[in-house]
Specification:
mainly alpha, 3 helices, 0% strand, flat
Length: 83
């Protein structure tokens, strides 16, 4: 059922992109985003579980202690840098 809703939203967005109404495209993007959030979350949870499965907290902490995180991609006010 979820796949059917996502496919339908994607088809509607594709139709909207052939037109000239910006609002229709933005609405289609928002709908597709809302419908795929839970799927993206589940996919991310599986990837994280696979990456850290069977490891202790200290082991995981060591592997990420020098990571920059997302801050390197953000500007001074938290906005995304575009390039």
């Amino acid at each position: 059922m979820e796949r059917l809703r996502v496919t339908s939203a994607l088809e509607q967005l594709e139709v909207a992109t052939k037109g000239t109404r910006v609002a229709a495209i933005e609405s289609g993007i928002a709908s597709l985003d809302a419908l795929t959030k839970s799927w993206a979350g589940r996919r991310m949870d599986r990837a994280i579980a696979k990456a850290i499965g069977g490891k202790g907290v200290d082991d995981v902490a060591k592997t990420v202690e020098d990571a920059n995180g997302i801050e390197a991609h953000l500007g001074p006010n938290g906005e995304r840098n575009e390039g």
